[in-house]
Amino acid sequence: MRCARLAAALLLAVVAVTATSVRSAADPPPRELLVFAAASLTDALVEIGAAFEGREDVRVLFSFGGSNALARQVLAGAPADLFVSANLDRMDELERAGLVRPEDRVELLSNRLAVVVSARSTLSVSSPVDLERARRLALGDPEAVPAGIYARRWLEARGLWAGLRERVIPTLDVRAALGAVESGSADAAIVYRTDAALSGRVRVEFEIPPEQTPGIVYPASVLASSTSVHARLFLIYLQSREAHAVFTRLGFEPLEGS
Amino acid sequence: MTAPAVEIDLTLSAPGFVLRVATRIPNGVTAVMGPSGAGKTSLLEAMAGLRRGVRGRLVLGSQVALDSARGINLAPERRRVGYVPQDAGLFPHLSVLGNVRFGARADAAAVDAAIDTLEIRPLLARSTLALSGGERQRVALARALATQPRLLLLDEPMAALDPGLRDRVLPWLLRVRDEWALPCLYVTHNVGEALAVASHMVVLDNGGLEAEGDPRSLLSAPVVVGEAQAGIENILSARIVAHDATGGTTRVRTDAGLDVSVTLAADRPVGAPVTLAVRAEDVLVCGAPAFPEGISARNVYPSSIVMLERTGPDVTLRGSLGEDRGELLARVTPAAVTALSLAVGKTVWLAIKSHSIRLG
Amino acid sequence: MGLEEIRIVAFTVEMALLATALVLVPGVAAAFFLARYRGPGKGALDTVLSLPLVLPPTVVGFLLLELLGRNRPLGAWLAQHGIEIVFTWKAVVLATAVMSFPLLVRSARTAFEEVDPRLVGLARTLGAGPFAAFFRVALPLAWRGVLAGAVLAFSRALGEFGATIMIAGNIPGRTQTLALAIFHDVQVGRDDRAVGLAAVTVGLAFAALWTTEWIAVRRRLRRDET
Prior knowledge:
The complex is a heterotrimer of chains A (258), B (360) and C (226). With 258 residues, chain A is α/β, with parallel strands linked by helices.
């Protein structure tokens, strides 16, 4: 009888140990940096991150997605070290919640929107009103994703939103909107020109002049809860000449930050 | 006077059923009888500690197993009560030896003693699935005994066995009774078993104690228990005299010297003691002055009526079989009394079929 | 399939194993209790424990987030004490464990219900305490069903998506399981990789379910013996 009780305790102990401490050995080592960044920055940051890894003894992990989703995750406690958002609102939100210190913020980049269609498509969109020829228009979710919000504001300013909103396919981030056109799920999409440039399967029909859109700004910041010494270093590196060169090559517009 | 082996004062409340039993059980085997639903199994389970909602007092020898007033309620594993259910309840994933050894307190000596008493040593390596009904019961008994319990509870241990087999398990039961000095509660529907094994008896009905006492006297006085009548009016002690295989009968002689022919019981040795039980309803009365030829009953005795009494819708007749040869009770209808002109003092023949006699 | 893909598969399997280990003891205990208890509140408990089976996984994930997010009382308390759960591998284990738990309970409970209920009581009269009776009688007789439940829970854990993405996010290298990776790949048009990962997922699920079937057949055979 006693040995049965002992067996029970042992089993419980084994399970408890297995479930926690064994895996805790795989908890992020101190020399790892977790960067949450807008989806449109995927290619640029991967390249810059690799260069940074070459200089410093640190591994840079990225989580790319809609800035809104990432911001919510940070608010809920995600252990990110840096956040680069595609619009100011999300960064402001984090600052209001005390997760970002105003002095740590930098306005890093700007970008431009572009209307794309599938490379094989015969659809021609030479002016905004031609968008009405598209049966389905993919946007980053116009209620939450920065690219979608920018696109909607532009459409609203042009008086086209009311007519087009029924045909909008909202995606989780701007890269998914691009993917929708690539796969043929949508006839057209409004994405950043930097996204369009990377894809061989889409054709830019026209670029939206910056004066017609609300200012597109990508703020970046170290998160107040970060304990990584490399976080600040990476933020500085993002503003370096090497990083600017990468951004520029891919079509971004580096801003004069701090 | 020795203290009672077991003191019971239990109340069990369950949805739709209340059991209330207060009695004292002496050492030895106590038969528990009563109709289905009377609460016999519930009583056993309550005593083993397997039921919730039991209040009262239960004392096993020197150990207080339950005393609600003092907040004592021992868990089953601490009560030292051996329980053998109706279908043995052997653990299918263990061998016979594994089953017998299962009990925590089963030290090697007790295990050996139990195996020897029940003579199951040849069965030890077998799987429980390869046992006959009687063997299963013996293993279950050995398993309970190996834990050296203070009280043994047997719930109709032979109910699931063929009548032929029943007699083969009985000797081991008697051995247990004789070799292990334990109080034992033995639930049964079978009067013969009760008479053979028990020295004390309690009768339950509707969750309460209906009667208690010596088995023979309880069974001789018809105890109307609920809807079933647990009355056996004629109980005789006898010994086996001879077997007649061809004729299909066994001859026995009662202690009073009466020769009786019963159905063949070849497995009982000559000279062995046996108890005969016959219901009053099964005794035929023949009023003819001459010996009734040509009837199938093998047991026909001249008798003089010493009592004739109205009992409910029937008439009970008591007939003397002669000097020191005992009496027999018979039950007849008032119409028969009139037709045969039965009266005290009249000589009649009493006839009993061999099949109506139950051996205990 | 490159190194990164192999890492995703290994991570997914590891998380599923941990989740199964986590639910094993509470699941078996709950199953045994539900199989034997006949008192008030049993139906309510059974319903609550079965909820993750019926609720949309995203709802379960949302509820977990409401419970453990940093901006909620419990989450804040945990954060204060240096315990990080959301958006880490621990959240993956938690989400998959919660979704798998009812599957284990159901299967194990059926197995315990198939055990003759009086045998445990008999074991008690023979001197075994509650734990001993469970480990020496109930569990040995029900182990096949318990095992089948564990394998089923593991299978479910392999494919968990909705709750996981809510509370663990889709962080490559930290919380990205097969299901999350496939979702993301399809979103961004990396169909080639998605197809490969999906094939692996189907293979794993097939192997796990086939094992469950095999155990069930053995159980039936054994039951017909007795």
